[in-house]
Amino acid sequence: MSRPAVEALLDVIRDWGADRLFTCPGSTEAAVLDALVVRKDVELVLTTHEGVAVSMADGLARATRRPSVAYLHANVGLTNGLSNLYAAQLAYSPVVVLNGIKASSIQARQGFTTAARMRDLVHQYVKSDWQSLTTEAIGEDVNRAFRTAVTEPAGPVWVGLAQDLLESTAEVPVPDVAPFRFDPRAAPSASAVRTAVDLLAAAGRPVLVAGSEVARAGALDRLVRLSEQLGAPVLHEDRRGFERPGFPTDHPHFRGQYEVGHPLVREADLLVFLGARLFHEFEPARVPPLPAGVPIVHSHTDPKYIGMTYGVDAALVGDQGLVIEALSAALPAAPPRAVPPALPTPPRRPSVPGAALRPADVVDVVTESLRGAVIVGDATTAGGILQQRAHQHSGDDYFVSSSGSLGWGMGAALGIAMGLPDRRVAAVLGDGVFQFGMPALWSAARSDLPVTYVVMNNQSYAAVGAALRRFGGEAVERQHYPGVDIAGPRIAEVSSAFGVPGRRVDTLSELRESLEASRRADHPTLVEVMTDPTEFGP
Amino acid sequence: MSRPAVEALLDVIRDWGADRLFTCPGSTEAAVLDALVVRKDVELVLTTHEGVAVSMADGLARATRRPSVAYLHANVGLTNGLSNLYAAQLAYSPVVVLNGIKASSIQARQGFTTAARMRDLVHQYVKSDWQSLTTEAIGEDVNRAFRTAVTEPAGPVWVGLAQDLLESTAEVPVPDVAPFRFDPRAAPSASAVRTAVDLLAAAGRPVLVAGSEVARAGALDRLVRLSEQLGAPVLHEDRRGFERPGFPTDHPHFRGQYEVGHPLVREADLLVFLGARLFHEFEPARVPPLPAGVPIVHSHTDPKYIGMTYGVDAALVGDQGLVIEALSAALPAAPPRAVPPALPTPPRRPSVPGAALRPADVVDVVTESLRGAVIVGDATTAGGILQQRAHQHSGDDYFVSSSGSLGWGMGAALGIAMGLPDRRVAAVLGDGVFQFGMPALWSAARSDLPVTYVVMNNQSYAAVGAALRRFGGEAVERQHYPGVDIAGPRIAEVSSAFGVPGRRVDTLSELRESLEASRRADHPTLVEVMTDPTEFGP
């Protein structure tokens, strides 16, 4: 079949099941916008910043496990979207980035909003980057982009589409996408499975570490079975690599988050990392992050992460669902070991009534009041507490980004809500984060998505304060922390001015009341909760 | 002299006369922040988004014609700042970008917020990109960065500073910067000047086109003299390349902006482009942008732009002040020609009282009420009218960016106000633009700078609407323009919530009143003026 290029482009998008196109458009996208006046099989989702277009597409892809499309404009639109594209990359999110580019002659002359090497800008954040060279190639190029995005390990791809090629009225081939939509998963080799199973069978105190890739593969149930078959406790992966829960926090085998100092890790005689990174380090470790002398089984969808820093005793490359199935099937029948009992939760420092709210108390109220909601975390210093306390039964109950790309959560929450239409979504944000994601409020206001934004406003870049504390220099000596105080904005009012009703609260009871009200709302809302600015970090 | 690396770094910054450091910091900047607890010779200017840090530094550099410093954090901070760095590049703005990078071991392991090739991300936007390899090299590397930034053609540079190198307590050499601060200007060769002067002397109807580089060189007075010496009319450069005025709009020889259809261009027998681009094209021209058969003299500081697309009859590479001086000195004594009279201004379509405000009327009120203020333009579709009507006596009276980087003006206005402390500054913005620059409101609220933000709110991406009109497809047929309607935000309220008092106005008299009040304020204010959403483009 042949069709004008822009129709071929939209046909390919539709045939890959991506029925939305997230964009903040410019003149280079006129032909696509014009086609969408008539076509209804692909929905134009307008955003007011490219960071929002990318994070919404990313959120939708994470929630649906299907490819999504962000359409960016020129070099400036691409660079505006890069930080959130980095987030998509770390989550193996198959976001197809289409990028409108000025007409060929304008590119050659370094005209308005061009870059001599567009592909260099995006290269590090995508699995492939290609600029279509002819009108005829557009359908094929975009089809290949989708195929590349979804092939495991999945991830973002980029296709540049010059305005003159896209606006051509020439009829171009429309590929039949069906033969490209194969099962892209890999299973580990039988010998690798045998090596891992031998280690598991020989271990007396194995600990499983559930990584984000388990959730992306939809394999929590299989990991539950493996854990029960073995009688092995399960930890979530280290916080810095965590993207989503790989094991139910309400399962009796769940024992918290991986840390080398965790009592189970200290006692373990085998560590099995499934779909986790070893590690996504924040700074040079003061103590080695793996216990000395303990054998390591490491499985990951992405072979580049196996043996990247630490050698392993068994390596299992492949889809985490298939890896876990293979381990379960190959394990010799044996009575399950007894899982060591959970340690008692350490007592909480009691709150002082009337004092500034502590982040931990706020997180407790949020996770209790919004129980059942999907939590999207984008709070730098409160993120650790949130991760410990958020209820995570399924792999879709909690989403964060390990990218450090502030503001990602505001758009991602909307994409996730689109992808999980039966769920309420709560995005828990810091006040610093909020300022990076504000244009998402426009998109929220235009939607009727059941999203609650909770902004924990400690009026600080608390992470910078924590870094100055660790640095231990003049700032600590004089108790003066430059670059930390960002007090001022009345965030709830900003939100209301965008059309997302906002309320600022100073007490836990007001917070509860606001969250309850948000559960009944049929549109996005925002609660700004004032927290203690002196409590740096978790 | 030897000092710890971070002190050497700050010494070099100070010795180059850059006494402010614009940043949105993270943990990699702890050592620098800590040093600034004690040191007062470099001021930390905190921002809440890297785009703001870069645009403030750019504005300051443009206004002072001196280098400035933006300190970004990790890969995500860099990518957040790239669009505004592109703006700085097009303006030849010597912004020294320092970039905190994770410790060396974290980079190698692809840890948190790292990029395998940081330099590739920024390469296209800077004159040099280098990551310091040793602690000892930091002083030298940053000194070389300043030297490179200010050497003509000037422009941004980038230096990556890994946390472990910067935090080393080793004493490192502090370079004496004096021998590096030479006069970096080039003058054109004598033979090139002779060729150009021969063409000028032979021409009967020469037209001078004053580019932005004339203003950057501070050479408006010299261009006035040349124009009077010749009796030649002067046009500003084409709108798409325009960054700042190269000729006083109140001089009797000023005749508007370059267009190939301009009556003087049609009549000219010589065109002399001084510090302008030929051209910074927006889209393929429907008619050639140069008149056939007319000799061209083209001068630019940046040799890459001479002969990039169109051949020339004389080329003058160098600083525009030196170029113009050389032409003036070499011109044979001759009575000046008579400058053709200005054409009468075409009559304005009268406004209908009570109807939606027309952008042209709003611009008239803004430019009249704020006469004497520096205008910073960042309004996509109203930009053309603003440029025509803003009073531009000096090269510092009007600043825009030719980058298409929306939101640049909100931070740039603050940097320009810092650089021109005796001037009031008004930033004229579109409502789409506003959403890209919002974090600048935080910086504005923290300052006592005399900045007035005027947001022309037509509730539209009018440029997208204009593109759909030019495309002439189904959107026009059905009068349905997708991707255009961005109505909703109450911009004045957003501003007030940030601590920048905002007011929404619907009439020209309210607008006048608000602008008058803003002139008396000792802090930034914002006026949101509702304009006609149906009037796409100028």
UniProtKB/TrEMBL annotation, chains A, B:
Thiamine pyrophosphate enzyme N-terminal TPP-binding domain ranges (all copies): 6-113
GO molecular function, one term: acetolactate synthase activity
Superkingdom of this protein's organism: Bacteria
Pfam short name (any one): TPP_enzyme_C
Keyword Nuclease: no
Keyword list, A-Z: Thiamine pyrophosphate
Residues in Thiamine pyrophosphate enzyme TPP-binding domain copies: 391-529
Occurrences of domain Thiamine pyrophosphate enzyme central (ranges): 193-327
Signal peptide segment: none
Similarity remark: Belongs to the TPP enzyme family.
Protein name from the UniProt record: Benzoylformate decarboxylase
Species assigned in the record: Pseudonocardia hierapolitana
